[in-house]
Amino acid sequence: MTPEQMVSRVLYRDALMLVIDKPPGMAVHAGPPNSRNQNESVEDHFDALRFGLPRRPALAHRLDRDTTGCLILGRHRKALAQLGKLFKSRAIDKLYWAVVDGGPATDEGVIELPLGRLDDKIGWWMKHDPHGQPALTKWRVMGRSRKSAFSVASPLVGEAAAPSAAGGGSLSDSYASHHPPPQPSPTRGEGARSVRADHPLSWLALEPLTGRTHQLRVHCAEMGWPIVGDAIYGNAPRSGGPVLHLHAREIVVPLYKNRAPIRVVAPVPEHMRAALTECGWGGDEPSFRSPSEARESGIHNHDR
Description:
Elements: H1 3-7, E1 10-13, E2 17-22, E3 58-59, E4 68-74, H2 77-88, E5 93-101, E6 108-112, E7 115-117, E8 126-128, E9 136-144, E10 152-154, E11 159-161, H3 175-178, E12 201-208, H4 215-222, E13 246-253, E14 262-265, H5 270-278, H6 291-297
Parallel strand pairs: 4-13
Antiparallel strand pairs: 1-2, 2-4, 3-4, 5-12, 5-13, 6-9, 7-8, 9-12, 10-11, 13-14
């Protein structure tokens, strides 16, 4: 991705923060200097995102490599400290869209399953652990597919693949979670490689009330409706399958005391549009308004 292309993905900008539309397949931060995996990361483009400030911006939170959508950057140290307090106090509202294999029997609910590390030796893979850290996710069904099978396009590999049983992402992350080792999935079991194509799909709105590593992915998988494209907690193959269908759709940040909270909405990524349409999404997207219109409406989308 060129610096200009990354700049074009800026959804919101002010003196304190940036919100960018993170693309799929890109880690938010670079790996260790001597790592075998020196792939492109969001951090590689921080110079292009300075917009005249002397310092580069920095990450205020994390998204998994294959999760798309709203990613917040602080533009200087004071801004980062302020954003950090807001995240820690859970004052920032986050809404994700996911397409899952199958789906819940009811239309809304709450998942309350504590999470812990699967194994200290395989990076940041997680599991449901009754003695782990509390993890809470609200969910709501936005739509369901009418068909019993669906073919999901995979733009990263340039071919179509069957839908998978998969799980969704969280705000916490590490380099190890971007590049998981070649181990069996903790949910699927040893050697499981099949991709189920006989289940309908559901479109969910997910609100993580806590920010545990891989929270949404593990919660959905544990409930029996994993997120399409998850090769760790779902049925997606290690390569050649659909991209993870998890999108950080909206974020609301109460950044200024005397102003309305900043609400930013990220457009649906190309690889999720077909599945969402099958589930009833009408293709509606927020209009990207001028800065003055955004201030008046309380919706602060950067004019692209």
